[in-house]
Amino acid sequence: MPRYHFGNFIVSPRRRLLVRDGVELPLIPRYFDLLVFLIERRHEALHRRDIFDRVWSDVIVSDSALSQAIRTIRRTLGDDSREPRFIRTVSRRGYRFVFADVVEEEDDAAWVSPNASSGMLPDTRATAPDAFEPLLERVTRAAHGANEEEEQREAAELLHTLGTSEALRRLDTRPGHALGRALLRDTRWDSPAASQVPVLGAPAPIAVARALIGLRLRRVARMVAVRWAGASLGGGLAGVVAGAVGGLILVAAPGSTAPIAVAAVLAVIGGGCGAIGGAGVGAGLSMAEAVARSRRNIALVGGAALGGLFVGSAVQWIGRRGLAVLVGLTLDIGGSLEGLVIGAAAGVGYAVATPRTDGGLAAPRGRKRLHAAALTAALCGLAALALTLTGRPLVGGTVHAIARAALGSQVSLTPLGRLIGEPDFGPVSQAVIGSGEGALFGLGLALGLMRRPTT
């Protein structure tokens, strides 16, 4: 693996170092990967799609994430987007590394100066003491439009370069400080020279948190919507499969009088329940992942649980009142606790299977995606099993309860219980059917959630 020498810079992919005149310059890992990719393919203009597939292959990020990465690399190289020496923007396509004299050479250790810095950018505070004020003014002023938001982010990144602690001290409680702190907090992950930007213990923590959530959701709103729709579709398809297969087994079970139409009815019921559940849990997961970076796992579990609780409570309320009004049945239909427990299980499985995303929304491929889906399915199945063992039936158990209470119903699941070995649809049957429902729901939810959209 060679190293690349251009101007007074050396890039070593093997050592993962960017050096200028013997001094190491810091770049976060994905930005370093992007620089190497641009240099390797310097004879062509790289499409944004190809860059995302190479550098962000396991996550989904917004277009602005690439713009921010290019901006940071240019600043590190001392490049100017208006008169680029190194990276040129190619209209409607992407970017190209345009420095003509790039030398590939063997990667030995002779080029690192023994007096090289520890990796921090040169301290510019002494030479530019007033550089903070125009940047602070920019980050504390409300932005109007995407271009101004990107200018604000660039200002926040420059403040980190000048000195995060000094920027926070000067920010203090001036008008608009909550937005400024939110911008500094959001950009610190992508600024190698940044230090901590606390929210708790800082002035107006609630306002800062609200501004930070707004910033992050606006940047990835479209991606969150796509993932929410994918999770809903995946949960719905899983419900259709579960209902249809269960219906066909019910029709074929010994002693069953159920017509073949029962399979279609159960498929529709299962699909509806799965889609609603997937929408709630998927929305909670997507928004939590988009907002949280420092406590991602806790946020994912909490978001999924809250999403499941919300839709479960809504289904419970509508189901109870709908049965009472339409057919005069009064049944203790569940939903809220079931949604909470299964949503939390899905959140745990997804968080454990996708531990590191570097600020994007997880989208593993191949075996990693199947592993994440399988783990989520297993935990949802175990959660469903625990619910049924404590007397909390899921979709199949609820359908059976409604069928027993309604005269003349043809969807009683008693033949399934007898097939399993019980005289009726008893606790063992409910546990088997319920855990299968939970596992299929988790599988469909995870596969739909992690689907990488076509670009």
Q: Which structural class best describes the helix and strand composition?
A: alpha+beta
Rg on CA atoms, Å: 28 Å
Please report the distance between the alpha carbons of the first and last residues: 31 Å
Find the count of extended strands (DSSP E, 2+ residues).
10
Shape descriptor reads elongated
Secondary-structure element series: EEEEHEHEHEEEHHHHHHHEHHHH
Domain module tally: 3
In short:
About 60% of the residues lie in helices and about 5% in strands.
Architecture overview:
The protein is an alpha+beta fold and 455 residues long. It folds into three domains: 3-105, Orthogonal Bundle (Arc Repressor Mutant, subunit A); 132-203, no CATH class; 220-449, no CATH class. Helix content is 60%, strand content 7%. It contains 14 helices and ten strands. It has helices at residues 29-40, 48-55, 63-77, 132-139, 146-171, 177-187, 205-252, 261-291, 296-326, 336-353, 366-389, 395-405, 414-420, 427-449, and strands spanning 3-6, 9-12, 17-20, 23-25, 46-47, 59-60, 87-90, 94-97, 102-105, 361-362. The strands form three sheets. The protein has a five-stranded antiparallel β-sheet, covered by helices on one side. The protein has a three-stranded antiparallel β-sheet with strand order 5-8-7. Mean pLDDT is 86; it is low at 113-128.
